[in-house]
Amino acid sequence: MAANLPPDEYVALSREYSELGPVAKAVSELRAARSELAGIEELLDDPDTDAEMRVMAQEEAQELADRLPELENRMLVLLAPKDEADRKNAILEVRAGTGGDEAALFAGDLFRMYQNYATDHGWRVEIMSASESEAGGFKEIVGRVSGQDVFARLKYESGVHRVQRVPETETQGRIHTSAATVAVLPEAEEVDIAIDEKDLRIDTYRSQGAGGQHVNTTDSAVRITHVPSGVVVQCQDEKSQHKNRAKAMTMLRATLYDHKRQEAEAARAADRKGQVGSGDRSERIRTYNFPQGRVTDHRINLTLYKLDRVITGEALDEIIDPLIAHDQADRLAHMGMAGEG
Asked: What's the CA gap between 193 and 261, in Å, rounded?
């Protein structure tokens, strides 16, 4: 039967089946626990139940009563509205902010943190565009991260990341504060966002390396301007103009799709302030304090004294997992308010 389905339809049905599986299991477990509890309560209500059996039944009833809220919450989390982009790959952009050379070095540290994190999760990172700083690090670097549920986990990294540390060039041991911005965009497919070629202005130019030197002598770098929105993307990483154009189109499609998602999210969640994962990149989300070995995520007031393991990506899940839990709790609370309304 499945062999007769068109490939796209088969993939869509397989995906739907895999998503419904955990929901069906959670519902089944909840029903079974409720049914078992009802049976035990009947036993307890029966005056003919002997004392020993009654003690055992009371213990089992208490265990089930304690377990029911957990099962109910798991089912609600699975039924909560999902971000349709969660399954997608991501375009990861890291840019140096205030702080000069130190900000560029920090941007490089952050990108390597995400590269290591991706490797640990079996994901693949492809650098799409990079502008190196003369002192090391990056003025900006853009990568494509592909794998399972990439956007679902990385989307919480969007925002301003602040670092406090003593630069290697600092002779008096003073702590400097600098920042880098991270943007995580879901990679859009052609079916997600339609782009009319007539709306594009495409310019080519010679690739530039760090310090302004030419990477090559042909006009292989590509800059694409989406005239209606004013969005500009560029790529010079490949020696082939064709490859640079393809990468730039991927970046443009992701940016326009992200704008579309942000508008829809804002319309849906106008009454939900401070939502984790809303994509608001205007505020500082995390501080990395090297002298204290401390990382603080300001959205959930979480502090970990294991900066060395976070900055290598090894302990990043210890921040992302609580952010996901917070987001799920927020969605559940919103479901409750919607139900009351």
From this structure: 11
First-to-last alpha carbon distance for the chain, in angstroms, is 44
Assess whether pLDDT exceeds 90 at residue 138: yes
pLDDT, mean over the chain: 81
Tens-place pLDDT, residues 95-131: 999 888 899 999 999 999 999 999 999 999 999 888 8
Residue 240's alpha-carbon distances to 23, 142, 280, in angstroms, are: 47, 18, 35
**How far is 299 from 277, CA to CA, in rounded Å?**
10
CB atoms within 10 A of CB 52: 8
What are the tens digits of pLDDT across the range 227-246? Answer: 988 899 888 877 788 888 88
Per the DSSP assignment, residues forming a β-bridge with 185 are 91
Q: What angle do CA 60, 64, 66 make, to 5 degrees?
A: 115
- Which amino acid type is present at position 238? E
- Rounded to the nearest 10 degrees, the angle between the axes of helix 51-79 and helix 7-45 is 150
User: 184 vs 15, 174, 321, CA distance in Å?
Assistant: 23, 32, 17
